[in-house]
Amino acid sequence: MDAGGDRLLHSSNIAVIREVYDSEYSPQCFSMELEKALESRCSIIVIEPSQLGDETARWITFGNYLHKTAVISGMTSIVSGFAWPDSFTPQAPLSIFSLLCTGLYTASWQFDHCVKYQVERDPRKLARLPILGALTSASPVVLVRKDDLHRKLLHCTVSLLSASLCIYRLYRTIK
């Protein structure tokens, strides 16, 4: 950040992690710049270094898959509970899997700043970025800050509801 501050932050709340190798910047500095940008809650983060961008995109994508898996398995557990009221076979494993995915997501991403960001892949939206013409990388990773409260509430609610229904059915069966 010694080079005038434009290396990291821009006035439009856009952070750019530039792929510049000089005497004071090394690959470790790229991840520190990314962490600063995430902590400062920039609305858009552009990552030029390909390795850092790919790792960050994979981490966010894995979190998205965990979230979706928790929701889909929880919803399937709920539906299967009503479709086969006399059998725990499909409902219980799906409910447990949903809870495991929700627990892993919560434990791994709850305090991670990346959870607030999504990888922008839409070329039309990317073309509207004001900084895109000044980039040195041909394929930067663009992160857009999104509110994740609804998605957290969704997967927690679905997982807990599926587990509650499963426990209730087990209680009624034992009773």
Automatic annotation (TrEMBL):
Its main location: mitochondrion. It is found in: Mitochondrion inner membrane. GO terms for biological process: inner mitochondrial membrane organization. Keywords: Membrane, Mitochondrion, Mitochondrion inner membrane, Transmembrane, Transmembrane helix. One of its GO terms (cellular component) is mitochondrial inner membrane. It comes from the Eukaryota. It is a multi-pass membrane protein. Belongs to the TMEM11 family. Plays a role in mitochondrial morphogenesis. This is Uncharacterized protein. It comes from Callosobruchus maculatus (Southern cowpea weevil). The lineage of its organism: Eukaryota, Metazoa, Ecdysozoa, Arthropoda, Hexapoda.
